[in-house]
Amino acid sequence: MSVKDKTLSVLENNKGDFISGAEIAKKLSVSRNAVWKAIKLLQDEGYNILAVNNKGYCLSIDTDILSPQSIDKYLKNDLVNFNINVYKSITSTNDLAKELAIKGEKEGTVIIAEEQTNGRGRFNRKFYSPKETGIYMTILLRPKIHASNSFLITTAAAVAVSEAIESVSNKEAKIKWVNDIYCDNKKVSGILTEASIDFESGMVDYAILGIGINVKPPKEGFTEEIQDIATSILDYDPSISVDIRSRLIAEVLNRFWLYYETIENKSFIASYKSRSLLIGKDINIFSKNSLEKANVIEIDDECRLRVKMEDGSIRLLSSGEVSIRI
Ligand code: ATP
What we know:
By secondary structure, the chain is α+β, with helices and mostly antiparallel strands. It contains 8 helices and 14 strands. It folds into 3 domains: 3-59, Winged helix-like DNA-binding domain superfamily/Winged helix DNA-binding domain (Arc Repressor Mutant, subunit A), CATH 1.10.10; 68-274, 2-Layer Sandwich (BirA Bifunctional Protein, domain 2), CATH 3.30.930.10; 282-324, SH3 type barrels.
């Protein structure tokens, strides 16, 4: 790690408090001049660092720049050694994670971006990912599970994201089968899991778990296309917003990993079902060339939707086959 990165780590761990240049230099075993240079570089990158004679340096509490250092302080690193990588702008965190997975990058690598220029969902739908207000992250996984169980990754993630949202805000998070999180009846988060399967064994070779969350209202607002269906976690309450995106990322990672370690126990399924927005609702089911109406009876343990069609017949829907609008 460079002196700049180490200095940022010290400042992040003391955010809102002054720490003297001498103390930082001692902690890092470098000269005070090296610390001063690192502070300058960080300020040039946009960090709001106050420098006061006889007090030292203070990273302003309202700084909200994502970095491995800003996230690391909230991570339970005893779970797994996450390898956090943060980019200012990227086409899609899933695309980069996929490239890395193919090259053999290890499980627990996390790609995070302040902005995605081509964020996407299922069926190549766009996920609007404006800069500095949301979280766009992908976790690289190498689960030892059969392809038929890969739905568990999305399900565990949906529960982890819902719990994480509730832990950093006063919102209630609901899940719209199969992979969307809603607050106040609007979408705040989308999840896209993509997996590569070993054809011989039918086991998952790698999976990439992409998560997009609207945290603050986008500076330019949501696009016209989604302004009626999308919302963000903060409407704006500054009192709960300190480090909100870093805390939320760490909460998602910590919670997801606990479920992931014993994924086939399905300990999260009950929570998934109880958060469901669809049970009991009338829905439209869109498949290739048709639109059908149904009523949702339940979500089963394989995470399929059991629905009653208009003609009274019962159908089990898997996530891949249909797109649902309430
Ligand atoms: P869905 O289940 O909502 O049909 P999806 O799961 O296939 O979508 P996502 O990437 O989660 O894929 O969502 C893409 C869809 O969500 C878009 O078609 C658009 O309607 C909506 N959307 C796009 N960007 C956002 C956003 N930032 N916040 C909320 N909704 C969005």
